[in-house]
Amino acid sequence: MMKFTRSILLLLFLLTIGYACDYVEAPYFENHETGGEIEDVQSNVLILDFTGHTCKSCPKAHRIIHQLTEVYGDRIVPVAFHLGYFARVSGDKYSMDFNTGEGAELESYYNFVSYPIGLVNTLSKNSLSPYPSWATESAGILEKEALIAIDATYQFDQVASKLNVDVSLIPVGTLSEECGPNLRLAMYLTESHILAWQKDEDVTPMDVENYEHNHVFRKAFGSIWGESVSLDDVGISNPLLLARSVTFEDSWLPQNSSVVLFVYNSETMEVIQSILVNLEI
Hints:
With 281 residues, the chain is α+β, with helices and mostly antiparallel strands. The chain is 17% helix and 36% strand. The N terminus is likely disordered.
């Protein structure tokens, strides 16, 4: 029944979305041990949305992500990178600066020619996809077997404005031989519920003053490409444990923030598992 309902919702997505683009000028998985296995670990979907506040077509992509999270909840793991031409600060209206050094690095690597554009469960530059395909791509990935369980707990030091995150990685499926030596873990800090100007071609007037910007990338825990990890000799009784931290800037609100964690294969650039940790502070 659940698969049937999701199929109907997916069909409605595909029937209702339009297409447009602007061109450039605590524990988070259920851990029930049964005979040395972890149950209830599901595959999630990482969606990287490359956007900008003066991109009039980009809210279409934002709405697709919202619809997907309404259906699948935290199994959709979104990150919105504001970068490039349409993320430039200009005038009194578009004075909010969402740009980051990491975003500039991604812009250089992917060489975007249109917005909105995104990546669904991959970092491969050959897999950039327009937002009308995100629902179909996500539905297929969500049906796949989970291969890695990611767990994360956190503490926030309010005096130092520092977030400390403890991470646990456990393989729960069979990783291919070529995948094992090429695993990387990336961790991002995002912020939601930011009210600022945004162009939106679907409303009048097109300049929206209190547009709600969600899943905005703020900072990486280390490199934007993450760090190498090994799951050799790792299991339920001896998970891979890591401790990482990030410091907030004064304008960032911890209560509106989230941590995105994902493991990917650096050879194929395919994402193997991801989780979204919404901070409760």
